[in-house]
Amino acid sequence: MTAWNPAVHLPELVDFFDAGVFIVDLEHRVVLWNKFMAQKTGRSAAEVIGKPLFELFPDLPQKWLEKKLDSVATLKNYSFTSWEQRPWLFQFSHNRPMTGGIDYMRQNCVFVPLKGPGSEEVEFVSVTIFDATDNAIYQTQLAEALKTLEESSITDGLTKIFNRRHLTERMNGEFSRAVRGKTGLALIMFDLDHFKKINDTYGHLGGDEVLKEVAKRVKDLLRTQDVFGRYGGEEFCILLPDTNLEGGVIVADRIRSAICAEPMQFGNQQIPVSASLGVTIYVHGMPGHETMVQLADEALYECKRNGRNCVSSKLPEASATATPIVIT
């Protein structure tokens, strides 16, 4: 019976693996190269064995891989790197549909220190590359689905801004932050003037286009930290962190101007639109964000009484009274 000869039998064995296997010495010269690696790189074992890995494949992440190989040899312990940490070692193609959103084969890599023949010292490091593309596609699709689900749960389907439920949650959070930090917080409530007439004249599709365009125009005026949502119907709400009453009124009037500056386009028709806006701010001692909503809503209806297309502000009775700003 022929004795086991690693030099002969090990390469034959690893050629049957459905994974990439190669071994390098401490100078990073290739000493083993299985069939999987040959097929994926287009270079046979005869072409690569005995040659420096990084000269053969200059596209490898040399600095990172050298450090990984050397640390495995020095610490005499194996190491694992997942595709989530580093998507690939070699830029191998894959046979999955491109609709999966994956460009190159995703790879999990295992690094194992190997002792030399008759030695207790590590003289080689083996690297095994597993194809993790299917798992990566599933994980990516799952993450995208969860993200879409999360967005749909907090977003108004028509205008693509925050819905009322999420808006209320953010109100509560920003109100608490203002209380704790004694920072400014302004709130704007606004609705579209004579919106029922718009729906009656142009139909609900026309009304929907108006709501979408209003949301777009307003969003373009706001900062990243501002919170903008649809409160219901044609009524909208904006939270302005770190903003005083004067700043809130200035923002509100910019919004009013942007809404009525140009008619909304609906097919070949143009729909003139204006809005009434109520502004308030957090005042020390307020019991909750509901008080801010009530004050801003009262200021909004003050606008209605003053002819619409204007901005009005209101504070608690102990602080101030409504201050309408009528724009003609």
Structural overview:
This protein is α+β, with helices and mostly antiparallel strands. The protein folds into two domains: 136 residues, PAS domain (Beta-Lactamase, 2-Layer Sandwich), CATH 3.30.450; 172 residues, Alpha-Beta Plaits, CATH 3.30.70.270. The strands form three sheets. It has a six-stranded mixed sheet, sandwiched between helices. The radius of gyration is 33 Å and the shape is elongated.
- Find the structural class using helix and strand composition: alpha+beta
The geometry reads as elongated
How many helices does DSSP assign?
10
Helix content: 40-55%
Q: H/E series, N to C?
A: HEEHHHHEEEHHEHEEHEEEHEE
In the residues, how many domains can be counted? 2
Which CATH class of the largest domain applies here? Alpha Beta
Quick check: average pLDDT? 90
Quaternary structure of the protein? single chain
CATH topology value of the largest domain: Alpha-Beta Plaits
What secondary-structure arrangement, pairings included, does this model have?
Blueprint: H1 6-14, E1 20-25, E2 30-33, H2 35-41, H3 45-48, H4 53-56, H5 62-75, E3 79-81, E4 107-115, E5 122-131, H6 133-154, H7 164-181, E6 185-192, H8 195-219, E7 227-232, E8 235-241, H9 245-261, E9 264-266, E10 269-271, E11 275-281, H10 289-305, E12 310-313, E13 323-326
Parallel strand pairs: 11-12
Antiparallel strand pairs: 1-2, 1-5, 3-4, 4-5, 6-8, 6-11, 7-8, 9-10, 12-13
